[in-house]
Amino acid sequence: MRISKSVKRYKVKTPGGKNVMNFKKRKSSYPKCKKCGAKLNKPKLSVKKLKTLPKTKKRPQRPFPELCSRCMREYFKEKVRT
Ligand SMILES: [Zn+2]
């Protein structure tokens, strides 16, 4: 497997006396609302697993998937009123 240069690496000495390069696992962050910063109702998944999932499972199927449902409703209300 090809590992990108941005992945942190560190050297480890094995019991057999060999020096081996190990790679740190990348941490994925929780999906958050862009407006209020609340956690979205989506599971925290590893970077590897996120790549394999379809797009529909990574974000909600409604307008403004980057906002939480409450912020989306308020946005539409404001749009209608003004
Ligand atoms: Zn929000």
Question: Tags for this entry?
Answer:
82 residues; alpha+beta; two-stranded antiparallel ribbon; 2 helices; 23% helix; binds zinc ion
Task: Write a brief structural summary.
The protein is built from two helices and two strands.
Give structural notes:
With 82 residues, the chain is α+β, with helices and mostly antiparallel strands. It has a domain at 28-81. Helix content is 23%, strand content 12%. The chain is built from 2 helices and 2 strands; from the N terminus they run E-E-H-H. It has a two-stranded antiparallel ribbon with strand order 1-2. Strand 1 (9-13) and strand 2 form a beta hairpin. It is elongated and about 70 Å long. The mean pLDDT is 84. Zinc ion is lined by residues 33, 35-36, 38, 67-68, 70-71.
Report the average pLDDT across residues: 84
Q: Note the gap between the termini.
A: 54 Å
What fraction of the residues are assigned to beta strands by DSSP? 5-15%
* Main beta sheet strand tally, sense and closure: 2 strands, antiparallel
Q: What pattern of helices and strands is seen along the backbone?
A: EEHH
Q: What's the gyration radius in Å?
A: 20 Å
Helix content: 10-25%
- Helix and strand composition category: alpha+beta
- Enumerate the distinct ligands: zinc ion
Layout: helices, strands, pairs:
Layout: E1 9-13, E2 19-23, H1 47-52, H2 69-81
Antiparallel strand pairs: 1-2
